[in-house]
Each structure stands twice: as structure tokens, then as C-alpha cells.
Amino acid sequence: MTDLKTEISSTTYPGRGIIIGKSADGKKAVIGYFIMGRSENSRNRVFVSEGKDLKTQAFDPSKLVDPSLIIYAPVRTLEKSTIVTNGDQTDTVRDFILEGKTFEDALRTRTFEPDAPNFTPRISGIVELNNGDFSYKLSILKSNEGREASALRFFYEYAQPVAGEGHFIHTYQCDGDPIPSFQGEPTLVNIDGDIDTFTDNVWQSLNDDNKVSLYTRFIDLATGEFEDRIVNKNQ
């Protein structure tokens, strides 16, 4: 298991990242999602709550250039599921689940982002509550070694989460030009403390120049109730 803070801080630009796991006391499902940016357009964002969901919006609307890949709902909450992604595939997953289909069914209709030459991967996760416990899944859709016409789709299922453990996946392996996509399986990481400790650990580990916003959620497995935290660099 890799130390979460060490893993996050090991690169200046992991891009956008999802962390899902179980709290150390075994009582909560844990979700974290962060965004980073190198361009002015990417950095001009904040997270805002929208009911039980989360959305991105421009911090300064006058500076918004292209909203297509940066304005979306990262989190959608259903009765027993929480969906978290780095793009508008959040709504694709939600719509498929409401139709009785699956997380995988939804993402097989999507591919990586059309932002050549980076072809940013689409990363997605889902937490599914079940009788006082939960399971979770992660996915990454990425180009095949930078080929625009060739997509790779990976799905990871965690049916029996372990207290104090989680998995971390992010869009980019490291900074670069073009930026290399994440490689390998989601990283096994530790999940420590309550929601405020977890939030602070993640936020403080992100590169100061490139971090933009962070969202965290702890879901009580006994009641299904949850609490959220939002940290925005732009205030």
C-alpha cells in the first residue's frame, strides 16, 4: 500500500484524480475528486454544490474560453449510488443506471476526450451501497499510445472494501507535452482520519501552482447519510 500523500505529491501534475475507499473505522465510504490546471481556462474554475450533486463553474465568467471539457457535473447522487467522474460521462452513467443498465454499459459508449495531442483519459468511479456496506468500481478510458482512432477501456471492481484502504486513479502519469496518460491499475492507498483530515491530506499534497479544486464525501454505511467538503483555490 502506498501512502496517499506521498503518491499525490510525487508528480506536479496528476491532472484530475479520483480516490475511493473505506474509512479507517470501517463506518464510512470515502470519495475524493480533485481537478488541476495549467492553462488560464482550466484554472478559472470552482466547485459548487447543486443539491446532492456537484458541478464546476467558471470563477470569472468573463475569462471563460471553451466550456466544453471543463464545465460539467463531476458528482451525481442516486438513491443508493454516488457517481464521480472527470467529465460529462457522469450524466451518461446516471442515465444508464436509471434505465436499469450498468456502469460498464454506459462507459462503453464513451471514449477519451478529443483534446489532441493529450487525449485526456476519462476517469470514472461509482460507490454502491448495499445492506450496511458498499462496493465500488473505477474506470479509465484512454487512447492507445496517443492514437486518436484507438481507444482502451479498463474497469476495476472492488467488491469487499477494506477499512483504511482505497484506490487512487488520475488522468496523467506526470507532467509533459503532450501529457502522458495514467498507466497501470489504480494505486492502493491508505485512507486516514475523518473527513476533515482526509480533505486536508489531499489538498495539502497537491501541487500549489496547479491545484484548482477538491471535493470529498464521507457516506455513513449504517444510514446512507453523507457529508461533503469543497475546497477551491479561487475564492
Structure explained in plain terms:
About 40% of the residues are buried. This protein has helices spanning about 5-10, 40-45, 90-100, 105, 195-205, and strands spanning about 15-20, 30-35, 45-50, 55-60, 75, 80-85, 120-130, 135-145, 145-160, 165-170, 185-190, 210-220, 225-230. Strand 3 and strand 4 form a beta hairpin. With about 240 residues, the chain is α+β, with helices and mostly antiparallel strands. The mean pLDDT is about 95. The strands form 3 sheets. The protein has a 6-stranded antiparallel beta sheet with strand order 11-10-1-2-12-13, with helices on one face. Strands 5-6-7-8-9 form a 5-stranded antiparallel beta sheet. It has a two-stranded antiparallel ribbon with strand order 3-4. It has a single domain (about 5-230), classed as Inosine monophosphate cyclohydrolase-like (Glutamine Phosphoribosylpyrophosphate, subunit 1, domain 1), CATH 3.60.20.
What tags apply to this protein structure?
Glutamine Phosphoribosylpyrophosphate, subunit 1, domain 1; 6-stranded antiparallel beta sheet; 5-stranded antiparallel beta sheet; globular
